[in-house]
């Protein structure tokens, strides 16, 4: 009877956990970042939703617009984004954005990502938009269990091939073995 009981438990455990895959912790972190930052970022950007967009950023945000040579804190960035979104709404324009990545690394509660974006602006009732390509660098930090953007620098007018040759948002495997940054203390 003990032998049958042991076999029963082994089979039960096998069938219970057969579909459970142990994920790489780096891949899990990138999935969290995509779910908590990038998918909502794209949605808020396209919906012209300033409040949702800004909530993705830390209150300690440093934002650099390298084309204009401008630096923003969270309050001035909110004002700038609201002005842009209000302009789009008033002129019945819409926009889309797609993100691709050249480099992604994560360690503990920090992540650093370099990527490219393709922003497309559409004039009211015109099906063909105007594409604009840029490069971004972000530092993300986990605050109270949620990822937030704490540093964001970008510049536009990059060649489209840089965007096209980068990895799609969901393509996480190439980054799972990113070089781990070692801490140095003095």
Descriptive notes:
- By secondary structure, the protein is α+β, with helices and mostly antiparallel strands.
- It has one domain: Nuclear Transport Factor 2, Chain: A.
- Helix content is 36%, strand content 35%.
- It is built from five helices and seven strands, in the order αααββαββββαβ.
- A seven-stranded mixed beta sheet has the order 2-1-6-5-4-3-7.
- Strand 4 and strand 5 (130-143) form a beta hairpin.
- The mean pLDDT is 89.
List keywords for this structure.
186 residues, alpha+beta, Nuclear Transport Factor 2, Chain: A, seven-stranded mixed β-sheet, 7 strands
**Topology order in helix (H) and strand (E) letters:** HHHEEHEEEEHE
- How many individual β-strands? 7
Continuous helix count? 5
> What is the 3D shape?
elongated
Number of domains: 1
CATH topology: Nuclear Transport Factor 2, Chain: A
Task: Tell me the β content.
Answer: 35-45%
Largest sheet, in brief, is: 7 strands, mixed
CATH class: Alpha Beta
Amino-to-carboxy terminus distance:
64 Å
Low-confidence stretches: none
* Protein structure class: alpha+beta
Helix content: 25-40%
Sequence-ordered SSE layout with sheet pairings:
Elements: H1 2-17, H2 25-47, H3 50-55, E1 57-65, E2 70-72, H4 74-90, E3 94-107, E4 110-122, E5 130-143, E6 146-156, H5 160-164, E7 167-168
Brief synopsis:
This protein is α+β, with helices and mostly antiparallel strands and 186 residues long.
């Amino acid at each position: 009877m003990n032998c049958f009981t042991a076999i029963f438990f082994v089979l039960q455990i096998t069938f219970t956990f057969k579909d459970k895959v142990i994920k790489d912790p780096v891949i899990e972190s990138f999935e969290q970042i995509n779910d908590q930052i990038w998918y909502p970022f794209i949605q808020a950007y396209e919906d012209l939703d300033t409040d949702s967009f800004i909530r993705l950023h830390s209150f300690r945000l440093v934002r650099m617009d390298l084309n204009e040579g401008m630096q923003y804190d969270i309050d001035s960035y909110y004002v700038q984004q609201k002005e842009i979104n209000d302009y789009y709404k008033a002129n019945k324009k819409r926009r889309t954005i797609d993100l691709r990545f050249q480099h992604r690394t994560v360690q503990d509660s920090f992540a650093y990502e370099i990527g490219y974006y393709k922003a497309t602006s559409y004039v009211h009732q015109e099906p063909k938009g105007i594409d604009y390509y840029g490069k971004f660098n972000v530092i993300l930090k986990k605050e109270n269990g949620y990822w937030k953007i704490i540093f964001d620098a970008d510049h536009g007018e990059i060649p489209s091939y840089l965007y096209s040759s980068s990895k799609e948002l969901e393509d996480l495997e190439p980054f799972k073995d990113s070089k781990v940054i070692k801490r140095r203390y003095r």
